[in-house]
Design brief:
Helices cover about 50% and strands about 10% of the residues. By secondary structure, the protein is of the alpha/beta class. Helix 3 crosses helix 4. It binds 1,4-dihydronicotinamide adenine dinucleotide (NAI). 1,4-dihydronicotinamide adenine dinucleotide binds next to helix 12, strand 11, helix 13 and helix 15.
């Protein structure tokens, strides 16, 4: 039985054992309910300890049940039954009490915890609000001021903070079970506390609510759940817990069936599955301690910082002393910036700097377990680097390229030991962006691939395996997306209208603003290279801009104009004149039509990517877009979005 009852004298210990996270599924809820009745009926029991088996108390409700109507007994009825118990229940928390897990703990009459546990209500991340009393009981226990960040702003409370706020009655340093049993014996000897919903709660006043609303609205970026969570708390404060619980449940049931919640749950499952591909089960990754990075430019310096931030020792290699100085200075700059923003201490920044050594040439990389190459995007240069690495490094050292477009098979051609070679495609800025495309070549061994996935886990990145094609999954989609946007411009739609439509959809910026930021010249050079090879690549408006020296923000203008020192795009008369020869008479297109066309193109390219076996699942494409290109999480990714638009 996943929920068991054992006795320690007069104390019943109810243990939930449902690996991996003790999720509260229907069976667990039914057994819990039965055990409340059993403990109530047993005169020899004076109090109950509720504890989780394994690594944690309870990680939450079972989200896989959320696609179906709620099954009985639902969590609110189980919780209400515990609240009516005549014997004290003590939640004994270790590891984590999250979502429904914390709601279960909140309904117990007392809570004790081991050091190092995490308590939180992360429901809004999945597009709904707590549905079993979290928005009502937590404010009554710790006050609305402390509860709102937890309920509506994803704040996680470690044991010590939870204890300070009064969420915990005792922190148990020694054995949790024994400590909780001792606590329960004490609790059995005193009257039961008043249930939380019956406790009075002062209204913090309109100014407080307005400030909280403004803060949450700003951070929510159009997502519905955070504000709904705030409103649920406020409603309960203003109208009392009985009505508050009803309103909370109704909001929960409504929100969990919205497109937003379905999209966020789709991503939640995709993200959870990403680090553990089925075909690598049982394959041990190689141990990584010392990692080399070749090239200290934009990408190399960011990759070095990301590796070091994850606790790895790093050696940065450059081609000469001046470039090495520049590379190390950029890495140090990233650590200093993190310290300035309060993300790390000054001592931590110094320690991180000390963990990044610099070398000129490849000789100094002999001891590395993994080397990531991030030199110029040039096949000859890259091949020379890998020939050197194959000579210098241990035969079991893993060698990776960060190339954006070059076929990794060509880079590895003739290299000794190609089984330890793969593509690890980071995104800029590499110390920030979550996506890591993993690109095996046919010779890449399972262990090499598993090490790539394990590295992503250590860097807290989302790994997505991609087959080999021009631009892999992400840049191939981007090229089609941009191409379709530019085709619209050629038809007479203003770039600013297209950007506004895509921002309205939820992208942080539109395709033309993004090009101006990244620079128009790289894709221009790609087109020129294709033309030089005799491919038929028609002239585009972007070509005209680059030929006129408008390469984006770095040249003071591209699709837009920019005032010196200002990154805010201003519509450009000059740009409009330059592209005029390739642009039809001005026309307008409704934002919805713009969005539909661009997302349609992306989904069609995604289908082709799937058909060719470049991506393993539609969800992989969604992860690439969400974590590498700013696709709004609340829409789930281009493939998920398309699947919802075309009912099957
Ligand atoms: P970058 O031009 O900023 O940096 C390249 C660095 O490599 C320079 O500092 C150069 O001195 C160094 N270098 C060249 N040959 C070397 C050698 N033999 N040994 C040691 N160092 C050497 O270029 P960036 O943008 O960092 O790109 C590097 C690679 O990453 C390219 O393959 C690029 O396609 C890829 N990439 C770039 C992204 C971006 O957004 N910039 C995104 C993802 C991948």
């Amino acid at each position: 039985m996943p929920v068991t009852l054992t006795k320690s004298g007069a104390i019943a210990v109810v243990s939930i054992d449902n690996p991996p996270v003790n999720a509260l599924n229907t069976a667990i809820r039914a057994q819990l309910l039965a055990l409340v009745e059993a403990t109530e009926a047993d005169a020899a029991i004076s109090a109950v300890v509720l504890i989780g088996a394994g690594k944690l108390f309870v990680g939450g409700a079972d989200i896989t049940e959320f696609d179906r109507p709620p099954e009985q007994p639902d969590l609110p009825s189980v919780i209400a039954r515990i609240e009516r118990a005549t014997k004290p229940w003590v939640a004994a928390i270790h590891g984590a009490a999250l979502g429904g897990g914390l709601e279960l703990a909140l309904v117990c009459h007392y809570r004790v915890a081991a050091p190092g546990a995490t308590l939180g209500l992360p429901e809004v991340s999945l597009g709904f609000i707590p549905g079993a009393g979290g928005t009502q009981r937590l404010p009554r226990l710790i006050g609305p001021e402390a509860a709102i960040p937890v309920v509506a702003e994803r704040q996680m409370l470690p044991t010590d903070a939870a204890a300070r706020l009064g969420l915990l009655n005792r922190v148990i340093e020694a054995d949790l079970r024994a400590g909780a049993v001792a606590f329960a014996s004490e609790a059995a000897a005193i009257p039961l506390p008043q249930p939380l919903p019956a406790q009075p709660l002062a209204d913090p006043g309109a100014a407080f609510w307005d400030a909280a609303r403004a803060r949450i609205d700003k951070a929510a970026k159009g997502q519905a759940a955070p504000l709904a969570a705030l409103e649920a708390v406020r409603f309960g404060v203003e109208n009392g817990a009985t009505l508050g619980l009803q309103q909370e449940r109704a909001t929960f049931l409504h929100l969990r069936s919205t497109e937003e919640s379905l999209a966020l749950r789709h991503l939640f499952f995709a993200e959870r599955a990403a680090p553990r591909p089925a075909d690598l089960r049982g394959v041990e990754p190689a141990p990584l301690r010392l990692v080399g990075v070749v090239g200290g430019g934009t990408m190399g310096s960011g990759i070095a910082a990301a590796l070091r931030n994850a606790g790895l020792q790093v050696i940065l290699s450059e081609q000469d002393a001046a470039a090495l100085d520049r590379g190390l200075a950029s890495v140090h700059g990233l650590f200093d910036a993190a310290a300035r923003r309060g993300l790390t201490s000054a001592a931590e920044a110094a320690d991180r700097k000390a963990g990044v050594a610099g070398v000129v040439g490849l000789q100094g990389l002999a001891a590395c377990d993994l080397v990531i190459e991030a030199v110029f995007e040039d096949l000859v240069v890259k091949r020379a680097v890998f020939a050197g690495l194959a000579e210098t490094c241990r035969p079991d050292a893993i060698l990776a390229t960060n190339t954006s477009y070059i076929d990794p098979r060509q880079i590895a051609e003739g290299m000794a030991g190609p089984d330890r070679f793969l593509g690890l495609h980071f995104f800029s800025p590499a110390q920030v962006m979550k996506l890591l495309e993993i690109i095996p070549i046919p010779e890449t061994s399972s262990q090499t691939r598993a090490t790539g996935f394990d590295l992503a886990r250590r860097l807290s990145k989302i790994p997505v395996q991609s087959g080999i094609c021009e631009g892999f999954i992400g840049n191939r989609l981007l090229k089609r997306y941009r191409g379709a946007a530019e085709a619209m411009v050629a038809q007479g739609v203003a770039p600013a209208a297209i950007d506004a439509a895509m921002r309205g959809f939820g992208y942080p910026m539109g395709p033309f603003e993004m090009q101006d930021m990244a620079g128009l010249d790289i894709s221009f050079m790609n087109r020129e290279a294709a033309r030089a090879k005799g491919e038929d690549v028609p002239e585009t408006p972007a070509d005209l801009l680059v030929r006129s020296g408008r390469k984006g923000i770095k040249t003071g203008g591209g699709w837009y104009d920019y005032a010196p020192g200002d990154r805010k795009p201003q519509p450009s008369v000059q740009a409009a004149q330059i592209i005029a020869p390739l642009v039809a008479a001005p026309c307008t297109l409704a934002p919805d039509a713009i969005v539909a066309r661009l997302l349609g193109v992306m989904a069609a390219e995604g289908q082709a990517i799937l058909a060719e076996g470049i991506a393993n699942t539609p969800a992989a494409i969604d992860l690439v877009q969400v974590h590498g290109y700013g696709f709004p999480r609340t829409k789930g990714g281009p493939m998920f979005y398309a699947s919802r638009k075309t009912p099957s």
